């Protein structure tokens, strides 16, 4: 599969027709255990479903192919994947360097779940390499980055940060949820591991929760696979199957998400109600050149700062009709959110806090004329 291009791999990797019946879609193996041919006589290695399930395996094959990885593991959620990764690599006394606007749940996991077990975390501005170098210590095992970031769409040069981290012997992890592998392939840029919330663009239809770790090589596979097996936050067969189905249309969906978001960003830049538009596809975005180099499109996420302040931002988030007020992102339907009270409530008052006048859009693949008309009526309604 690796010789084929992205859209082809997304549809065919791990998706061989059922050899017994020819069913073009492999069945959902909705079973908790597998019969053994004599004690220890496992068919194709399957025994008990916490250890392995054929539907999960086909998703894992597909995920590895999407990122150009050696292998992948799929989990019940993005945070379950992150937790297995962190516990598989770290031990008490180790240290993590974390971008200062990564997903709030990642920060919460490190500082509230893992900190009591002896893991230390320092947040840094990843665009400032001196700050990154200064934060790295002998105990630093992981440098964790997210680009574009959430919700301010900051862009980090993956190759440059990877070089600094590798010089210090740290493992480089990229949360590639926002870009999706359709737009950005961190392993090829020097990352060691990629994590995903497959809940977002990979699943793509707001109907399933999931997460993944994708491995550039075998170094950490056994340790993280052991966490998956020993703790058990695996994806259920139906969830794995729904994610696989979503992934098959990823390339076309992401193209449309990006096209719609670009049009909305350009429209928003022309409106005085917004004092700032955060979208890497705009030439005015400080990370535009890096994004143009390391991504093959700019994605469907954008944030808007309301000139009239926090109350106007909250009112605007409640005034749209097609853009529905909800957490999450990456589905075919457009969503709007007010990060300070919603996705980023857990990081208020920390280094990761978000400006209070910002709304975040997850631009869906509806007709963009309807989307812009919806935002226009929202502005008219709040009279801002
Ligand atoms: C949603 C999200 C996560 C967490 O994933 P869940 O599936 O909700 O556990 C991690 N990183 C990013 C960037 C996310 O958007």
From TrEMBL:
InterPro entries: Cys/Met-Metab_PyrdxlP-dep_enz, Cys_met_metab_PP, PyrdxlP-dep_Trfase, PyrdxlP-dep_Trfase_major, PyrdxlP-dep_Trfase_small. It is an enzyme of class 2 (transferase). Its cofactor is pyridoxal 5'-phosphate. Pfam families: Cys_Met_Meta_PP. Belongs to the trans-sulfuration enzymes family. Residues 1-22 are annotated as: Disordered. GO terms for molecular function: cystathionine gamma-synthase activity. Keywords: Pyridoxal phosphate, Transferase. CDD domains: CGS_like. Its EC number is 2.5.1.48. SUPFAM superfamilies: PLP-dependent transferases. This is Cystathionine gamma-synthase.
